[in-house]
Amino acid sequence: MSAAERDKWDARYRDGAYESRPHPCALLAEWLPRLPRGRALDIACGAGRNALHLAAHGYTVTALDISAVGLERGRRTAVARGLGVEWLCADLDDAPDSALPRGPFELIVWVRYIHPKLMPHVLARLAAGGALLCEQHLTTTAEVVGPSAAFRLEPGELARSAHGLDVLHDYEGLLVDPDGRTVAVAQLVGAKS
Hints:
Elements: H1 3-14, H2 26-31, E1 39-43, H3 49-56, E2 60-65, H4 68-81, E3 85-89, H5 96-99, E4 105-111, H6 119-124, E5 126-137, H7 157-161, E6 165-176, E7 182-192
């Protein structure tokens, strides 16, 4: 990712982006009771809403993002709540294998960050019996919020990329986020044998 992209995300978080969304991803909240416990990795965590939720439920959490400003907001929230989270600033675009922390992780959460070449590196960090919970923006003709088409998956793309996992949940379509906004998403929860 270019320095311009990093600066863009830092500016967004500095200007208060996503402050109205402190809740975890609805998919994570729903599936958490059924997911394996232990070490968790939150990829492209932003200000850490999912990482904080995981830490509050007893996970040992590593949270990674390109925005130092977003990570600092997450760190401050974690301190205020008495939660321990390891916050890592890294650019996954250039060398994802070296940017991702070493596993194994019992749970990897990857929400709304498109990176077509990242999946093999993510799967390599899953522990045997570990789970991947992934939600990405999906291409649609419906009127929804979210990024441009360049940052959306095509139908079936997420499931195809996660080959080798035992699929526990696979959904593509519209849903309403907890903040009342309609989004088009591809969701997958899979376990590594």
